[in-house]
Design goal:
The structure is a homodimer of 181-residue chains.
Chain A: E1 7-8, H1 15-18, E2 24-30, E3 33-39, E4 42-46, E5 51-55, H2 61-69, E6 71-76, H3 82-89, H4 98-101, E7 106-107, E8 116-117, E9 122-130, H5 134-137, E10 139-149, E11 159-161, E12 166-175
Antiparallel strand pairs in A: 1-10, 2-3, 2-6, 4-5, 5-10, 6-9, 7-8, 9-10, 11-12
């Protein structure tokens, strides 16, 4: 059952979402309870199947859920969600239901139990593929197993964290002749 | 000997440069010969001392130099270097001296043999700190041991790669109240 309004995105295009370095939201589910955190420490590792490395601090409530479930969703928010992104980052799922508190709508995913976020323009369903760097660096290697895009959000502007609540919003696009993928 | 015009940047501030996801240049030196490549697959792993993860494909000429020397410089270019960044990404150090070909000026670094790039607004001298993920993912963990900033370049706009020579340039900055570092 495809989530309402979301459109399938080919896995080969996932890197174009994450490579530019947007702040993202990461959702998890554990014992029937969903949580969401804000994350900026992520990068692509392989094009296809898409592998993504990310750092989730053991101090985050999401860490245990990611370890236990081995699944998550990376949701990419646009500029209009900036305030909620900061609120999510400044609170803990230990104490509150962040979806309800910050008006984010969880939607069932197709391949994982962690929820998609309806308000985000892209949602990537992920499985933990390698935990060897978790103990030392809290670094997970994720495989994106399913990707969704919201076709109603055209030319979304992502936000990039510069520390302490300062974000740079996407500006103009330039196109240069390149053989680089 | 501090490089001309460059100013020391505290290591605790390095994450604010890389976390927003700019395209960067990576320099190496091997057998007295310097090289430079374009890179977008990098992320912060630790604040201080700053640890950075990055993926350098084994197909890149820089891979062998990084493996052999265990050192590199991550240089952060602003918008005005976009054309050169693409030229660097579309050519190989196997065949040409990219510094000369694309008018980039190598400067001696303080702690590593790889050169700084005079035209970049930030230069991070790095040592390879962990190679355990190199065989499987071409993923290096680097420690930033020295950081430089060019005070003459104010409010540099970085560029973010969306694939195939399409880049988004930094736009406006927004500031939200946040407890997040």
């Amino acid at each position: 059952m495809p989530p309402a309004k979301m459109k399938d995105l080919p896995l080969s295009k996932v890197y174009r979402l994450l490579e530019p370095g947007p702040v993202v939201l990461l959702t998890t589910a554990r014992r029937g309870r969903a949580n969401v955190m804000t994350m900026s420490w992520h990068m692509m590792v392989e094009f296809e199947p898409p592998l993504v490395a990310c750092v989730v601090s053991a101090a985050n409530h999401s860490f245990a859920a990611l370890q236990a479930a081995g699944e998550c969703v990376i949701a990419v928010p646009a500029r209009r969600l900036a305030r909620q992104v900061v609120q999510v980052g400044n609170s803990s799922g230990r104490r509150i239901d962040k979806f309800a508190a910050f008006r984010l709508t969880p939607l069932p995913a197709e391949r994982v139990r962690a929820p998609l976020i309806a308000e985000c323009f892209a949602n990537l369903e992920c499985r933990v593929a390698d935990r060897r760097m978790v103990n030392r660096y809290n670094l997970f290697i994720l495989e994106v197993v399913k990707a969704w895009i919201d076709p109603a959000q055209r030319n979304p502007r992502t936000i990039h964290h510069h520390g302490y609540g300062r974000f740079v919003v996407d500006g103009p696009t330039i196109k240069l002749k390149s053989a680089m993928r």
